[in-house]
Amino acid sequence: MRKYFGTDGIRRIANTELTPNLVYKVAKAGACVLSKHTDHTPTILIGRDTRISGSLIESAMTAGFLSYGANVKLLGVIPTPAVAYLTRKLKADASVVISASHNTYEFNGVKYFSNKGMKIDDAIEEEIEEIMDSDQIDGMNAPHDKIGVSELREDLIDEYANHLIENFKTSIGASKKEDFIVGIDTANGATYKVAEKIFSELGIQYVIINNHPNGVNINENCGSTHLEQIKKFVVEHRLSLGVAYDGDGDRCLLIDEQGNEINGDKVLAICSKYMKEKGTLKKDTVVATVMSNLGLKKYCKENGLQECQTKVGDRYVLEEMLKNGYNLGGEQSGHIIFLDYNPTGDGILTSLMVIQILLEKNVSASKLCSIISIYPQVLINAKVASNKKHDYEHDETIQQKIHELENEFADNGRVLIRPSGTEPLVRVMIEGEDKEYIKTKAEELVNFIEEKLK
Question: Given this model, what pLDDT does residue 1 score?
């Protein structure tokens, strides 16, 4: 089991658990592992979101890279998918995103990307951890004349913006309607500036909220994890669509004109149907995770598509896509990967894809979503100590409770229990026809797990 890295990099409370000293070691060890096969001075990109701790973590990260002898380009506040795109475009040796994604401001994190703009795999993370905890870390210092240099390149975000604008200006431009207006919630996060630039350049009418970050209001009752505000905003202002990004901009959830959520499963259904019609959906396959709704599975079966499931985490979705040549995949939470554009989840790209489809088909968002029926699904977290979140797997009484529920919902539902990869939680998900009943059953199991593992 990895000591520092979870399913989405390292994520901890900044300046107490994620200390500058720890980040410094992560940088030195990462530079060593990721650049050991190069024959030149490595260049590493660093981007961050709007958290107050971002500059602190960025400084420690930069110091670690420079001390090892790597050069650094500081991208400033920028969405995660933009960093992934720029890593490939600039042919950088690696990149890092400093963000805790959807978590509140006191958390921060470190996500590594390879020279291909993809999250590094588990084996590389394990190798980085080995170096971090070894005696060699202190001696990994560049000679005096080989110390790295840093360069501020906040202007590079325009390269990412132009990439999306160029890909959608023809299709969206040809279908624009004066009465089509989008509400945008940037979660006071990394998309707060670039989303406006892209929507403006594409001529999409929009109204934007939660785009005034102050370092501590990122994801605060807003964005993709708190949809109440954007739902109300869309209905009150009679908007055509609502778009909610998360703190680092790699995921997107949407709201139809009636105020209903359009989650990642619905987005996958909408986009797979459109791509199949256009002949661009490779192997007629959608890649999703075990958390995806039964409704997506039934949709795929009824429409001649194959649904391929992976374990939770967009990195595993991407691995499956690359392994078998698929080009559409994602998670219910809104990480959607369009591999023909970018090898990572991209919130702004996802919203543009849905807007393009809405405009081209000239239908309402609610009508567009009617192609898929979603089963009620309840997800409740059992709060446990970090060192105990895997213990439920070996506790006989907890396993017995889980098996009883699995048998009960075997015919028309589902039970899924898993430890969080980033937080001290055991996630309990139950799917079935009666939402109140499955909620009661989930709460009972959560209470049981918390009591047994306290």
Answer: 60
